[in-house]
Amino acid sequence: MTSQPVTGQPAGRSAKIKAIGLLSGGLDSTLAARLLLEQGIEVQGLHYSTGFCMNDHRRAMGRPDEDPRRMRSEGLRAGGDLGVPIEVLDAGEAYMKMVLNPKHGYGKRANPCIDCRIFMIHGAAEYMREHGGDFVFTGEVLGQRPMSQHLQALNLIEKECGIAGLLLRPLSAKHLPPTVPEERGWVDRERLLAIEGRSRKEQMAWSDKWGISDYPQPSGGCCYLADENFARRFHDVRLHARPETIKRDEMILLKVGRHFRLSPSVKIIVARDESENRFLERFLDGRWCFEALGTGSPLTLVEGEPDEPLRLLIASITARYSDRRGEPLVEVAARRGAVEQTLLVPPVADETLQAYRL
Length: 358
Prior knowledge:
Rossmann fold; five-stranded parallel sheet
């Protein structure tokens, strides 16, 4: 990527200054937007749909007892609270390719934080050029996240996004060199902040001042890529397949059920409840599925082509999680399209099961 010319106009123009911002709905990005609104700047929010948001998945599962707050779009909610327009952008296949092969690597789990920021800020810069805007802003805080928010990473992200001087981080602006919006007087640098480090005390103080109370807790997070269980499954997929062969469905299915790796080429997903049964049913096309007969049973979905011994093992695992798990033998149906067979198997022993669990 190469730097683009400054798009804004000189200070003193009649038109209102417009900032394009990444608005996740978290406290930091909400405060960053509010700081600019306080200066009379027009804000256009962007919120990326990446396919890895926990709230989006909870909404897709549709469990009737789920807390509605855990299913909402935090970006849209924050936009409504701030009174700013939000456009939701589908990150699509390009984001998936980045996640599977990030230039700057992963964090502690499966989180490609630097590449993710570059992807989103670059997208915001393109949006600014296409739809009109003067600069881009984010809620990043110097020193808050060990991988992507130290000074070297912040500088790298700005450079690779190709918008040198047009990326404003209002919460830490006074720790960073002045940007074009500050130098041209579009933004008053003295009214920006100097937050640094991992503590959220200063952000909380500003939220109290402005009456901002409805936001997700910072420690919770909404990204599956930073979740320990998801990351373990994610890296298992990458270990057993080339990144270019991994399909979007495989990433979606990592969010659901119990996962067991039975061989280098065969993995199974065992639903944990009726909602997950219904979810897995959407992915039956071309896949084997197993279900205990005549009883409450999970749906077991198979990734890969199991041979006869593995089909017996899959049936045994399915029996273990059915309501007939205490019986010596259980009938289990194995189906793929029009092909079906019935297997009579004992439920697998727990100590055997543990060897396959992801």
